[in-house]
Amino acid sequence: IVKLQANLTALKSGIQAKMAEDQLAQIRLKLIDELIVDLSKELPRLEGKQNVTVLDTQILKLRVKSLHQIQETAIRVRNEDMDVKATLPDIEDWLDKLIQLTEEPQNSMPDVFIWMIRG
Q1: Is the pTM of this model over 0.90?
Q2: Which backbone phi and psi does 58 adopt, to 5 degrees?
Q3: What digits encode the pLDDT tens for the residues 82-91?
Q4: Long-range contact pairs involving 25-31 (C-beta distance under 8 Å, separation at least 24)
């Protein structure tokens, strides 16, 4: 997420500085390529961990599916010859989704009660 934020900031700065389109396209391409590589990395497995709940398994499945969808969209956007400014909303949306995926629902109070009841 940090890399994506930095690349997005660089892209926005380039747009504000009115950089040449080919330079903006290079920044955009670098951003998307790095995102695709990062999204292709596998998430940690739950096997062998203690106190894994059904919720943990479902959250992992949701995260994997969401990351795959973002990756597919990034590949599609990369292959399209789009204006750099037109891709900004997509990139910002990816960043928002990734931030949401990093939040841990187990840290909320109801999950603590479920864990305590489960023993």
Answers
A1: no
A2: -65, -40
A3: 899 999 999 9
A4: 25/84, 27/84, 28/84, 28/87, 29/78, 31/4, 31/7, 31/91
